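[audit] Reproducing an earlier prediction to check determinism. Same input, same settings, fresh worker. If the tokens differ from the archived copy the diff job will pick it up downstream; this log only records the rerun itself.
[audit] input (346 residues):
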Amino acid sequence: MTQLRRPPARAGGFCFDPLPGSPFGTLARAESGAGLAAVMAAAERSPDVLPAAMDAADGLLVLRGLLEIASAPRRLVELSRLFGPEVEDYRLALVPASMVHPEVPEILIVSNVAPVSRQPPARPVPPLTADGRLPTQFPHRRGWHSDQSYRRPPPDVSLFYAMQPTPQGQGQTLYANGIAAYEALPPELARQVEGLVGLHTRSGTGRTEQAVRAGETPRPLAPHERPQRQPVVRVHPVTGRRALFLCEAGQMDWVDGPFVGMEPGPDGAGAELLYALMRHATDPRFTYTHEWERGDLVIYDNRTVLHTATWFDATAHERVMWRTTVMGNPGPEYAGEARSWLVRSS
């Protein structure tokens, strides 16, 4: 069994507690009091403490009660800079302009409210497991991914902030520990993933599983849109820990992949292996369900953690979330690489 890892109970003006109901991660709070000011003051005095706590907790860190960020969005960017050398400017990220915060372009808006109008995923069928729980494991739960895995180099860390969450019981976010999942791989799966390379793609290319099964013709791709190869087992550049790094239907290439050198397509040997790995990686032993409250900030390491969204009643509730993305330390494999997603003039 994988040993549970946590940061020290106190460090650098912060207290760290086990994350309730989770097999990994940590809940952080400033020793000096509640709210954003206390967190920022402690972080300014000891800027390495929160990133170190995230690393010690296998890539998942939760702060609650940061209500002031809603009226001071640049503070979210300041917090983001603790976790890496660069915070992404979403104006350069090939996302719709409506999703970019009008005053702080480092913030991506994820919302069902116009003009973003992003709808939640469908409810699983059936909506609950046999024992009445929220489904987490693939394939009952779909959509598991790492943010922007279709880019090289891929991003490091994401910060996800609840401006206006839905009522609890819906609109949760699920997280899966890729480190623990890798360490618990059965011997045959462990053998198969060594040196294996995944082929990742973005939606809208005609190369996702849904598109291929629907018979869509893949469209011609510009250089910055092409599928990107990623190791299935990534070595964390700070901790040296190994983690599963893969997505399922929506961010893997199902025309030439999902794995390089294996039979391609949604009914090939590569798909069979991917399904087995996803079932394993999203086993409840490795997953956490976050029930959002206004002012929550979840910080997750894309190099080691998978996540997915859940259904909410978009006809009855408005949901507004903010996300920042930190880049700059993907690991030595990516050293010196140009950014694959940037449009270059000919």
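[audit] rerun output stored. Observation attached for the diff report: The chain has one domain: 10-334.
[audit] end
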